[in-house]
Amino acid sequence: MATTTMSDERIHAPGADESETHDRILDAAEDLFGTEGFAAASVRDVAARAQTSPGSINYYFGSKNGLIRAVIKRIGTPLNEARLARLAELTDRHGDAPIPLRDILMSFLEPLFDDRTTRHEAISRLLAQVTVANDPLIGKYWSEILGPTGNTYIDVLRRALPDLSPDDLFLRYQFFLMATYDSRTFSSWYWAWAKSSFDQDAVSMTLEERVSLFESIFLAPGRAA
Length: 225
What we know:
It is a single chain. By secondary structure, the chain is an all-alpha fold. It has a single domain, classed as Tetracycline Repressor, domain 2, CATH 1.10.357. About 65% of the residues lie in helices and about 0% in strands. Helix 4 runs antiparallel to helix 5. It starts with 18 loop residues before the first helix and ends in a 6-residue tail after the last helix.
């Protein structure tokens, strides 16, 4: 059986006759980690959901941590590719000029709503769990897999918003990420609270509405010096 490097945290790459089990494990882990969190969902839980043995998880991924990294990588890679492809098209279109803010935000958000590259709700749930997990190792995986693309976006935002101070840009980008991946969006308790406090049922914002909202936040006046 072929092996991969430990940097991928996988012990064995699946052969053709094993890929179904391998993918079933990833599907089960993605679902459980997204709904219950990384700490709460155990290897045994994932194995039971995938209808396999806990040993299969160790066989393919080495450990629970290896499985977590593989799940984040599986959702992060198509997001990165889709976002960077959109940015490349925008760069070609605008040449040396800064990319308009609205186009930048659209290129970041659109892949989350594109069923051809992602499963929107499941992936948003999982990425929300990544952002709230109080675990340096999960943060390390996030940084390794999604961080470089995030840095690219920060660079293009700096060019698009040259009058924003570094502090203001950081705070707005931080809010943008938290609002994009906020796990409460998919929590029944949150909408029960919204109903009781605001008499507000669940609101489904369109992509255009989200982009407009975030655009207004980035374009708001900076803090007074």
